[in-house]
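May I ask you to comment on the folded chain given beneath this request?
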Amino acid sequence: MSESYKPRSLAEIMNDVLSTVRDYYDSEYAYYIEKDQGDIETIYEWCAENVEWQRDRLKLLSEENQPKWMKTEITDTTSDSYSVFRQISDDTTAVLAVVGVHRGGCTLDLMRALLPYIPQAIALQKMQKQQEYLSYHDDLTGLLNRNSLVDYLDNVKERPLKSLGALSIDINGLKNFNKEFGRDYGDEVVIRVGEVLQEYFHSGEVYRLTGDQYLVLVENTTYEDFTKQIYASHTKLDNISLGLVSMGYAWEKVDIDVEKLVNNAEVMMREEKKKYYKNLKKGHHEPIIKQDLLEDLERGNFIVCLVPKIDTETERVAEAEAVVRYHHKDLGIVDPGRYINLLEETKLSHYLDLYVFEEVCKTLHRWEISGIPLIPVAVNFAGATLKQESIAEKMLHLIEKYHVRCEYLEVEVSESGNDMNQEMLAETSSKIRKANVRVILDHFGAKDSSFSILSLMEFDGLKLDKSLITNIVGNARSRIVAQAVIDICRQLGAFVQAAGVETQDQLNVLKELGCDYVQGSLFNKPITIETFEVRYMKE
């Protein structure tokens, strides 16, 4: 941006206006305020010398405690405070006021003349700032754009550099992903790649040059440090973009030609890109697995299975937990460890979780119209899924779509390993329960869980972690902990489940302790929905 033109800040604009108003009326204070339904949203203040600022105190006042000049117009020029009002939207009112007036007899013409123009000036300044920002930043990621790179190339020649590293990154196949899975998915990948680059190259500048290409420039770094950052970020970027990232880099410390350095990095990146596509043609399957994940979701290549939950009193199936198995078209059943972590890392696990939730809704609907007795079915939600702002709305949409009775739907959540703090988990669980879906606190007793969550979070049921159940027969401490948790849940009106039950002795102990439901290899491992129906639902 040209140095000859620099938009004035809001503070500069308002200081000029309010100082003029204060001087004209010889007041102790001058204020411009915007109120949204009575609440102060914006406040600017100018005061006389040796007078204490009041802005911060005024912002904290409730509407009923606000001074009279802030609640209604005061046009009596014999009073010590004047104010004029103007409605600038349905909910927003602008107030221009002078407080502690020493010059009596002045008209309000100046204030009335100025007030209409102040909101316009503020809006114009905000628009100018936004336009300036968008001129030099990418509107999707917030990264620097090509205009910023041009400015950098123009200015960097004027200052000495000890060294410079350039890294070029390209997301291969992004257009195809946008076509196959929608732009929302493509945008998630683009944003996440930018976040990772900023994380690993926080001392450098990160640019988004085109839809799928990025550039990182790091000044005054050693070759060793620069390459360490590259290698550390490469693995993460591979996961983020489903294995489709190509990278090239260059580094120089003598006779640095920045444009040539950038070009060398881009040449190396394009060579890597060629190698990737050659590997695909040769049948290297690992990147193909990654590329096919979301497409397979659409095609239903993820198989939803059910794990029976047994009532400890009757030892009959009372509930079920939905789990998922991935059937790749070339490699068959894929180990969950090969794709679950990938989806969590890329923050795309909500696609899979909502897919499972929808399959459960379909199943419950089919059971009801077929006359099969209904039982509650639980779905596990990852931390990334719970962080989705609209998760409750998406669940309600599916519930209404398949006309599911909510009392037969459960969501299992965990504070362990999902990158959510307890407050976030409690808030999200509350939203899910408001959708009339029961919430089960999963993995309680695992390494990262704590008793404090019990007082913060509302839940309908709790599942004891397998690690606690493993030693429950021979370990008195495990029994004491389990008993304490069960007793607390009784008082909170929540039921208790236990995972990982493998022996009859474990089942007997859990019965004695008052555990309501159990699951594990003693009863059955995950089985297809069809097999579950034949085995347990059509007796």
Notes: Confidence is low (pLDDT under 50) at residues 1-5, 282-286. The domain at 288-537 is CATH 3.20.20.450 (TIM Barrel). Residues 258-282 form the longest helix (25 residues).
